[in-house]
Amino acid sequence: MLQLRVLCPPERTDHVLRAVRADPGVAHVVVSRGAALEPEGDVVEAYLTRASADAVLDAIDATDLARAGAVVLTDAGTTLSAAGERAEAAVPGEPDDAVVWDELVARTGEESRLGGTFLAFLSIACVLAAIGVVTDSPITIVGAMVVGPEFGPLAALAVGLVARRWLLVRRALAALAVGFPVAMAVTGVTAFAAEWTGLLELRALPAQSQVSFIYHVGWSSLVVALLAGAAGMLSLTSAKSAVLVGVFISVTTVPAAGYAVVAATLGDWWQCLGSTAQLAVNLLGIVTAAAAVLVVRRRRSGSRDRVPTRELL
Description:
Elements: E1 2-8, H1 10-21, E2 26-37, E3 40-48, H2 50-59, H3 62-68, E4 70-75, H4 82-90, H5 101-111, H6 116-134, H7 138-147, H8 151-163, H9 166-197, H10 219-236, H11 244-250, H12 254-265, H13 269-301, H14 309-312
Helix pairs in contact: 5-8, 6-7, 6-9, 6-12, 7-11, 8-9, 8-13, 9-12, 10-11, 10-13, 12-13
């Protein structure tokens, strides 16, 4: 279940209470009048099912309430409640499969921000991938896949396109357009520095190696990217977030970027081109499949797509 906490002006408390209590997916409602100090007002708390979250947020006018107070929606964790079980039974569908659109937009929006941490993780992942290429180490390549944070902007791009949130689309594109060139530049400098200091010896890349799958582009590359994008978005839109680790390992986005840098450093432009094409195929496939999953789930749930409060503030 989810926990909803609303800090609202006293004149709007009764409206919030009526809206919350009218939904069959709400199990518990608590009101503390005058409890909020900044801004001054009342605090309303409720426990509700994931399937009811969007309807309740619409009913209480969450967008307007966010301007005057705050609306917080969090995972309630382990909840032992007979009323909670009755609330989940009263709402059609499986609780874990419900899509909370405000939560999805807010989460992908946070993970798509271009900042120092994002650039650091992407650069580290790209350098790890380059080391894996030079040492012919698939294990290091897998490590680079896990470290890479690029799925956040890719998911945000899919959400923004489907929900027509152009600010989210621009933010995701900026993260990808700036992040990958910066990470590849850092990798190139690191490669030259490692060779100059003798830490690594850059030699011609063999035509066949344990990591040659990175630049071999084919239908399998597109299929894997589509499946990874679908699985990743299913994980984000449900309560099964552990699946994301498998998604990170299955796609060759960061490894392709690292391989392209190493190949360019050695003047092997054919393999550099192949790696770049692999990167483009994976990025396009992930976004396409993720967007398709969102379209299908949106039609099945019938949820209305609202502008999330955090994008308005």
